[in-house]
Amino acid sequence: MEARIKQVMGDIFNIDVNSINDDSSPDNIQNWDSLKHMNLIVALEEEFEIEFTDEEIDNSMSYALIVNMLQNK
Amino acid sequence: MKYSEIIKLNNTLETHLNGQEYKVIILSNIMIHQAKEVCEYLLRVESVNARVSMGEYDNIVQDSAKIQDVSAVLIFWEVCNFIDGFHYKINVLSDDEFQDIIAKIKSEIDLVFDNLKNIPLVLINEFSALIFDQFSLCKNRLNQITEELNAYLIATVGINTRIICINKVLSKLSIDSSIDLRYFYSSKTLYSINFYRKYFEYIKPIFLTSIGKIKKALIFDCDNTLWRGVLGEDGFDNIYMYQEIQYLALKLSQQGVIIGLCSKNNLKDVDDVLTDHPDMVLREDSITIKKVNWNNKVSNLKAIAKDLNIGLDSIVFIDDSSFEVELVKNELPEVTVFQVPEKEYKYGLMMRELGNLFYNPSETKEDIQKLQIYKEQLKRNKDKDSKGSIKDYLVSLGIVLTVHVDDGSQVSRISQMTQKTNQFNLTTKRYTESEIARLINDKSYMVIAINVHDKYGDSGLTGVAIINNVDSKIDTLLLSCRILGRNIEYKFMDIIVDLAKSRKLKVLSSEYIKTNKNQQVVDFYEKCGFDKISELDGNSKYNLQVCNYKNQHIAYIRVNNGS
Asked: φ, ψ for residue B228 (rounded to 5)?
């Protein structure tokens, strides 16, 4: 699952998959603004065929948090 | 395809782009940023060097005033955000307030279309209230305002503008899967990724047509494609016509689409059906080309492209056999191939869907004439095979050229020629109708068009040259391929140089801009006696001292002056 999340993030932010780690967040990924965050959510929902709640959307603000959230779905 | 894959492939395609840039700007009064990659991707896979950018949020009027140097503008103007919360406030507004808003939007429409009148292509969605009005069976103010504004759009738009029936996309997908309201109240996004994928698939042919990437021919297999049954086995009396398919094809042929047959059958058997079968809809006169023999379909389709002088990428082919479909897909990837669906009731819908590939903004008289013209050309080719010397043959044609200079009645055909002509086209500049109309009225340009006529019929308006009188330069020179092989191009150059002389031009400059398709004219200017003055990346520039030009004296072509 981690690999698929990284792949989606790599595609959406147009960055190298290997550069993504637990700390990856809007603070260190320049592309990750509020519009790109919407794109990321839509893409993750497609990838895992799930729908995020509003709260989950707001809380998914780093790679580690996204992994954590998807593990609990 | 998943959204993340679209983004990834779009980024990859971006690094391989070449050719002229096709800039699209999307204006909107809602947030629509996810449209960008989907639109870019769908155009880039068709080898269009597309760059899509977005206007400012809710700034359609001001943005439209700033736009220049773009190929196309697309407008999403959503009723729900005419004013903040319009979709829920509308039914409690006073009549005066309601009328004020209608008047405001109408005046904004006027401003926007005036600002965009010189943009080659403008697309605007018709106003729709479907999303917020889906539960109400009664007519209400949302319906009233959309109907009134849509009528106003139709009455107002210029010839550069196409109105998109967005409700058809919403219906096809369902409203539920077209919208994603999660960010609507915070960020004014409205549509889902699903919607964008389907929407841009719908409108893609309009973009492609505007840059000359257009499908021209629809080629059918016969058995189990035009009719149910196998003619050679079941026999004339036991085949059942797919009349819906044939009627839809007949309509396309009336729009100027070439209808052809490519079938493994005995020619005589098929001809009997075409002539005598009582239920057949497509008869000899609506079928332009037939390759009915036992050769393989790949070589037959190649021969069709060659005979008609069109590219394989302008051909759409329908067959029922998986084997043939896969063979053609593998061997001729440029050809667009459809397979007759296994479930017969789906065939009519598939035929309607592929009909959209032949998107035709305005049917000109030439479109309707064109099938006749292709037929005449095939007959000429046959004569060419059977007669003696080529020279005798050319003399026997009795070719007459009629020259039109700055003739406003030919705007739509001239524009269409610049859009569609790829092979004999020196600079491949595409012009919309509104641009041609402007050049015709501009005294610093001369727009020359020629009409070709011979004993077999009228080929219509088939050559265009645009001269910039101020720079003394040939901006555009093109001829339809169906009239080549008769030295008309050299006679046309005589005409151009004569007109240049009459405007007192001393040195006429010109250029050849290389594309994937215009290799055949790489040395045309040199053949006409122009001096090459520079060459870079396959593009060349030329000069001609007008007084030194040697007239080609092609006696068997007569020239008439039209208007």
From this structure: -85, 130
- Three-state secondary-structure class, residue B242: coil
Closest residue in B to A4 (Cα) is B4
- Is the distance from CB of B489 to CB of B527 less than 8 angstroms? no
Ordered by where they begin, the domains of chain A are 2-71 (1.10.1200.10)
The pLDDT of residue B78 is: 96
pLDDT of residue B386 exceeding 60: no
Identify the three-state secondary structure at position A51.
coil
DSSP string covering B414-431: HHHHHHH--SSBSS----
State the Cα–Cα distance between residues B258 and B281, nearest whole angstrom. 15
CB contact under 8 A, B189 and A38: yes
- The pair of three-digit structure tokens given for residue B311, joined into one six-digit string: 């590219």
pLDDT at B382: 66
Cβ atoms of residues B335 and B312 within 8 Å:
yes
Quick check: B7 and A34 CB within 8 A? no
pLDDT at residue B396, rounded to an integer: 79
Contacts of residue B311, defined as CB under 8 A and 6 or more positions apart, other chains included, come to: B305, B334, B422, B423, B517
Domains of chain B: 3-210 (3.40.50.1110), 217-358 (3.40.50.1000), 365-561 (3.40.630.30)
The stretch B519-543 carries a mean pLDDT of 92
Whether B139 has a pLDDT exceeding 80, the answer reads yes
Nearest to B307 by CA among B364, B394, B380: B380
Residues of A in contact with B8 (CB under 8 A): 10-11
Mean of per-residue pLDDT scores for chain B: 90
More confident residue, B18 or B172: B172
Strand B217-220 and strand B315-319: pairing? Answer: parallel
- Contact call for B33 and A46, based on CB within 8 A: no
Residue of B nearest to A6 (CA): B4
Residue B412 CB coordination number (10 Å): 18
- Considering only CB atoms, which chain B residues are within 8 Å of A60? none
Least confident range of B68-77, B202-211, B382-391, B419-428: B382-391
pTM above 0.80, yes or no: no
Per the CB < 8 Å rule, is B2 touching A54?
Answer: no
> Is the model more confident about B228 or about B382?
B228
Count CB atoms within 10 A of the CB of residue B117: 15
- Name every chain B residue with its beta carbon within 8 A of the beta carbon of A46: 2-4, 193
The whole-number pLDDT of residue B295 equals 87
What is the pLDDT, as a whole number, of residue B81? 93
The ipTM of this complex is 0.88
